[in-house]
Amino acid sequence: MASNEVKPTAKEDENAGNWKDSIFNPRTGEFCGRTAKSWGLILLFYLVFYAFLAGMFVLTIWVMLLTLDDYVPKYRDRVPHPGLVIRPKQLDMLFNRSQPLQFSTYVQTLESFLQQYNDTEQERNEACAAGVYFEQEGELGEQRKACQFKRSSLSRCSGLSDSTFGYAEGRPCVLLKMNRIIGLKPRGDPYVNCTAKRENPIQMQYFPSEGRFDKMYFPYYGNKLHERYVQPLVAVKLLLNKEDYNTELTIECRIEGSDLRNNDDRDKFLGRVTFRITVKE
């Protein structure tokens, strides 16, 4: 009886052998087409090549670090004017004055932010002369002194006499500060001026008086040299009436009275800030 088994042809045996030899050839000792010596040389080449690249990278970083100052940024020409920042850090605020849970986040944010301005904390700083730049000289790395900015100077917006910062009565407070710029000495007498973008004006009250950033808080010497420095604040209390409730109010605040820019169309936060607030009852 004839067998039905199909025996592999010589060509199939040769193909199978070629495939196995491409992985490891026992006759030549090659693995994936290369001998041990060839693999060693190519691995050595890449080891030396990447070690050279790593060395060049480390050398470049080291040279760059030698040119940097630990206390003053090397390039400061891109930020010659400060931005204006608002606290609570919300550009859209909406709350019902009769529901504390709706404005509790704003109140907690203000309370937490003002901890560093507590009078007991600020009494450790210098009682500086108003209206005069507080310029200081010192040895390299020597700490600079900071002027006092007491929380109590914010009066009705300090959170001391009214723990809700006016939100419960529907007359909320917002705090404004300038971004820190090392060496900044604004010319003139900078102050904050806020206006409502509507026909009928909104009554506002500023703390400290006239919303001024006093010169004694300038210049700033940097985080390492001026560790106890705190930015001066201006508090704005919106004296809203019943006709102002249940309406979205757009408020724009600008730094006026100095050489600080506040009208750059490319940066809407340079020397100014705009926020919206809606108070319901």
TrEMBL record:
This is the non-catalytic component of the active enzyme, which catalyzes the hydrolysis of ATP coupled with the exchange of Na(+) and K(+) ions across the plasma membrane. The exact function of the beta-3 subunit is not known. It comes from the Eukaryota. It is a single-pass type II membrane protein. Belongs to the X(+)/potassium ATPases subunit beta family. The keyword Ribonucleoprotein does not apply. GO terms for cellular component: sodium:potassium-exchanging ATPase complex. It holds the Pfam family Na_K-ATPase. GO terms for biological process: intracellular potassium ion homeostasis; intracellular sodium ion homeostasis; potassium ion import across plasma membrane; sodium ion export across plasma membrane. It is found in: Cell membrane; Membrane. Keywords: Cell membrane, Disulfide bond, Glycoprotein, Ion transport, Membrane, Potassium, Potassium transport, Signal-anchor, Sodium, Sodium transport, Sodium/potassium transport, Transmembrane, Transmembrane helix, Transport. The chain crosses the membrane at residues 43-68. PROSITE patterns: ATPASE_NA_K_BETA_2. This is Sodium/potassium-transporting ATPase subunit beta. Its main location: membrane. GO terms for molecular function: ATPase activator activity.
